[in-house]
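thought: user wants a sequence for this fold. calling inverse folding tool.
action: design(structure=
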């Protein structure tokens, strides 16, 4: 195998296939579950809490390039994304894109210089 393809093959074998196996198994096992059942509601609540914690950590104590964006820009992006979620009738993609646009604008107008 050429040296060019080796990293891609390793990524597929080590990262993609093991997680894809569990995702496929979860889809197969969850096909008969009632979406309103208590266990599904609990799982959704735990997943939401974990995601909220990760976003809070990234925004309140960032590392790397995100630390160059001032706190007002990061907090403003969260607030605008939260409002956009409800304005756009609970559209997650729209809220994420709106928050991202505000974050990028805050970085630009604050004079943050990124090393790409």
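)
observation: tool returned 116 residues.
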């Amino acid at each position: 195998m050429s040296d060019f393809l080796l990293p891609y093959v390793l990524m597929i074998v080590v990262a993609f296939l093991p997680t894809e196996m569990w995702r496929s198994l979860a889809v197969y096992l969850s096909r008969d579950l009632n979406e309103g059942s208590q266990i599904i509601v609990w799982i959704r609540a735990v997943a939401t809490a974990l995601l909220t914690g990760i976003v809070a950590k990234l925004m309140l104590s960032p590392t790397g390039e995100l630390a160059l964006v001032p706190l007002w820009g990061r907090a403003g992006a969260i607030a605008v994304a939260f409002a956009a979620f409800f304005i756009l009738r609970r559209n997650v993609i729209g809220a994420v894109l709106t928050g991202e646009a505000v974050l990028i604008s805050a970085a630009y107008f604050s004079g943050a210089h990124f090393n790409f």
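thought: summarizing for user.
answer: Here is the designed sequence. Residues 33-110 form one domain.
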